[in-house]
Amino acid sequence: MIDVGCGGPAGYDHLHGGLTSIGLALRDLHTVVLSHAHPDHMGAMKYVLEVVHPRVLIHSLDVGAALDISRLHESFDIPLAKERFVPFDRFQDFDLMEFFNIFGCSMNPTENVAAINDGDVLRLGDFEFEVLLTPGHAPGHISLFERKTGILLANDLVGVSPAWYTPSSGGLTGYLESLNKLQSKKASVLIPSHGPVMENSEASIGRIREKLLKREGILLEALRAGPRKFMDLLAALFHDASIHFFPGCGILESHLIKLAKDGKIARSGDLISLIR
């Protein structure tokens, strides 16, 4: 099984209902491949481990978070968000695990973990999947490519919209490089974690890249009017204030890191200005 789903009550129903619909039973599960250590992909390990104890394969960079879920505070860059929102007391007690619980997708650790790495080949049934390290959304996010069939499991990187990204998870630079890596495989079909199967993999990957770079254009346009503070750019990038703290802060910081590296902006304290 590749990913097991959320840890909330609905996750249990999806897991068991999905297996039953194709004539399989959870007790027969011997191997789980986790695309990354996020609650909507591995939270339901809680239910798996109540029935069976499979070997669990996950990229070495995400092993720590799969075993100790408190480490997700780091890769989600929650300390960065709290620092940006210092004047807003309500965010200083933000608890990531409680955030997951509220949305019905609790996070749970796993066991029997074995690390996999970029370039490894996983022989699963009649398939041989090449492991592709594709960070941006998570440090150890992987995609899987089956060369014989041309099937590409892009997991969270490609869907209807971009996944969120933070500096500690690979940032915008990592995300864009990962998209290039996926596109180089010239897959015949792309299967995302969220959304429908995509027959034109190159176009699907290209659309996500365009959406990411469109955000960069929004920031550059805002800065053409003069220097701006971090919070001003956050409001320009996301009109929905409910996502400013998370994942907005991490996304914006990822863009600013790339723009500074590209020599397009300068930062002085909390003031960001365009280099003309």
Query: Could you name the CATH topology of the domain at 1-116?
Result: Metallo-beta-lactamase, Chain A
Sketch the major β-sheet: 5 strands, mixed
Number of strands: 11
Which descriptor suits the 3D outline? globular
Indicate the proportion of strand residues. 15-25%
The helicity comes to 25-40%
Helix/strand order, N-terminal first? HEHHEHHHHEEEEEHEHEHHEE
Secondary structure tally, helices: 11
CATH architecture of the domain at 1-116: 4-Layer Sandwich
**Backbone structural class:** alpha/beta
Strand order across the biggest sheet? 4-5-6-7-8
Q: Roughly how many Å apart are the termini?
A: 51 Å
Our Rg estimate from Cα atoms comes to 20 Å
What number is the mean pLDDT?
96
CATH superfamily of the domain at 1-116: Ribonuclease Z/Hydroxyacylglutathione hydrolase-like
- What ranges have pLDDT less than 50 throughout 5 or more consecutive residues? none
Instruction: Give the CATH class of the domain at 1-116.
Output: Alpha Beta
